[in-house]
Amino acid sequence: MKANVIIKLKSAVHDPQGETIGHALAGLEYDQVTSVRQGKIFELTLDVSSKEEAASMAREIAERVLSNPVLEVFEVEVED
Amino acid sequence: MKANVIIKLKSAVHDPQGETIGHALAGLEYDQVTSVRQGKIFELTLDVSSKEEAASMAREIAERVLSNPVLEVFEVEVED
Known about the structure:
Two copies of one chain form a homodimer. Chain A is of the alpha+beta class.
């Protein structure tokens, strides 16, 4: 079973890499792009029997290992 | 309007960072995790009037700027 853990910076946290990409897009005449924020995604393949178990394990791993709760927020999506 | 561009390595491409995280998880007794693949996500805020326009612009930006078509695949999700 596959679970995606999506990690984004909290909105109050400065994201210089995203800003740089935003400036580059403005230079390429994508003026409608008002903000770019970069994050990470981890695709976990889990050998468990139910979607609930996959979601609960992915959330635990995201909290304990993958994310930094001071700076980041995460969400978990389990694929069918 | 917000559009997420999710970029993952093609499945044939080696992902050492994901593998390292996988080994670390095995060491933490998450033995059910059989694979970890890392990717990137870009959250674009777009000043456009329709979801269709947002999706089309995000796809164009993903193709031209954000992804490397040799190594990566991307998908676009527009938020309501």
